[in-house]
Amino acid sequence: VPEPVSESLKLLGFLDVENTPCARHSILYGSLGSVVAGFGHFLFTSRIRRSCDVGVGGFILVTLGCWFHCRYNYAKQRIQERIAREEIKKKILYEGTHLDPERKHNGSSSN
What we know:
It holds the Pfam family Cox20. One of its GO terms (cellular component) is mitochondrial inner membrane. By secondary structure, the chain is mainly alpha-helical. The chain has a domain at about 20-95. It has three helices and two strands. Strands 1-2 form a two-stranded antiparallel ribbon. The longest helix has about 45 residues, at about 50-95. The N and C termini lie far apart (about 75 Å). The model has no long low-confidence stretch (mean pLDDT about 85).
């Protein structure tokens, strides 16, 4: 029995939506933004072609907005995680030695 091939979903042939952080989130919100913008414009103007254009514009704007917001937060989180890992390594390395900042603090308060 051949095993099923699990290929990830690639949008436009190159954007791996499944494995790229923030891609799925941005595409879904962009689609919702497209429907809301296009349908809202249609309700106010009853112009079909212009409403479709507004829907496409809404998709692009919402997708890019969500993408940049999510990627900014993702990068910020990665930086915070890296700093926390470095601090944990320092704590493990210096714990119990004369370079331990907590030991200096505790030693000076007992004198």
